[in-house]
User: What shape does this take?
Amino acid sequence: MRGVPANSGHPRACAQIHKPYDSESFFEVSIVKLSASCQELLTQLQTVSRVASTRSAVQALSGVQLEAGDSGVELRATDMEIGLRVPLEAEVQRPGTVVLPGRLMLDVARQLPGGDVSIELRPSEGDVEVVSGPARFHIRTLRSEDFPPLPAPGGDTVVTMPAEAFVQTVARVSRSASRDETRPILTGVLVSASGDELRMVATDSYRLSVKETKLDAPLETGFEANVPARALDELSRVAAQVGAETIEIGVRTNQVVFRVGGVVLSSRLIDGQFPNYRQLLPETYEHELHVPGEELAGVVRRISLMAQKNAPLRLSFTEGELTVSAQTPDVGEASEPLPVPFAGEPFEIGFNPEFLRDGLESVASGDVILKLISPLRPGLIEAGDGSGFLYLIMPIRLNV
Amino acid sequence: MRLIVARCEVRYSGRLTAVLPEALRLLMIKSDGSVMVHADTGGFKPQNWMTPPTVIEEEGEPPVRIVVRKRAGASEDRLDIVIAEVVSDVVHDMGEAAALEKDGVERDLQEELAAAPHWCGEGFRLVRREWPTDIGPVDLMCRDADDAWVAVEIKRVATIDAVEQLTRYLERIRLDPAMGACRGVLAAQAIKPQARVLAESRGIACVEVELAVLRGEREPDLTLFAA
Assistant: This one.
């Protein structure tokens, strides 16, 4: 923080009750006054406002809560599923709490002329005055009472692990989580940590991603939780931005709280039985091929351009060769051969192009091991470097 | 059906007065007495219209004036069409009108699921369609692989109301001691997330079905597991 918050001689405001619409008594409202750099304000607003709700009936949820206290300034936003608390480096003249319209405040912060910005709540007007250089804004505040309290870090089980390992693991699996809100269990990533292993599993029923990551040091305790993929993706963004070395994970009965650097991200946990993924993995395969991963991913990316309108990507295996092809009526077709160590009866299998691409791109680098059984049984993409990544993908029926 | 393309002015009087100034318009006069005045814009909706029963009076050959009258309580609705030029005037015999056939409605789903109840749950056998309860019929009554009773409510789009409806049926069905363990299945082409949560909290299973798959027009997508 830039400095110790100064009490500028005004009577200390009530810390909890902020009533911008009830300005009868000066002593009953929080008086926020602070100054910060425009760039710092913009950066932190960009981070926090991502989780502000865009479609809630409660207007305060579209806002960003700004709390100026003795220990500094914090920006908060939530859509009731994910909550984010982001510190703001600022000089506090008067502590207090106010909820600002998130989208508008971000737009204003983007256009500020630079240098420093001061934000002051004007209780009698029910707005905040934002001043930067010659620019002066008066922005109406939202109902502070409607903004829910966000959980503090910690929990029943608290685990600290390297941020990079956690984020890298999320990046490998989160694409497989379902976006279909009618199947809430599948919109999450099953995160398990115990001993020296972190494991994440995600599936949308068409594909399954499993990543097991070895940790440098064993954990003191472990946990298993189904965390919304959206929360983990958001956490990854925050971690990359903050550049913290560790992530603290606090797991509660129905909530998880991550602390990375000074940022606190909380999320509800998804209730219900996650599919038993182990029994989905076939025990044996007919074909096992080691293929250069980046080369195959490149071919798939190119040929996928001609697989539109739900057209499948066709993989035709013949002696020593794989031909990837696609055809979309009224659009065109494409094919490209690739030498592969295939032996046996030729066979053809179809995949959703996007799902196949996701799987190949999730194998970070090096060879991929392609394991296949038959045109209607799932295929497995495995990282050839023994990094513990598995991607099981269901084929699409091919009409001839 | 008579279709007249004519340059005309249309005056309406009745609950209010309205004038369509002279312009080229399509006058559609149906055999049931409906009269519609269309322009070449404005979508499907006529610029003015009169619903049957109407009295239609016509002057001249070719027509120079058409008056459409209809009683509206104590007053009269009147459409006065003054024709300056007739571009086209044709009459078509449309024959018997076939009714609109809607496909993919609840009844279609019910028929398909009654013929193949296993889509509602493994081993399901149909006992009866429209199983009566004292508050209305439940769509399908089935028995599962263990011979237990299962009431299936079918909707095109299942909302919370559908869950409430099936809950009420189950309450009534379970009053019969022989069916005290009857469970419920909500089958629909789409199930709203809130409906799914409520159904699951009440022990009601949810099944999403596709009409094209039920009819064998399309193979179901291959999945790793039944989600």
User: Anything to note?
Assistant: The longest helix of chain B spans residues 160-173. Helices of chain B lie at 106-115, 160-173, 193-201, 211-214. Chain B touches chain A through 14 residues (CB under 8 Å).
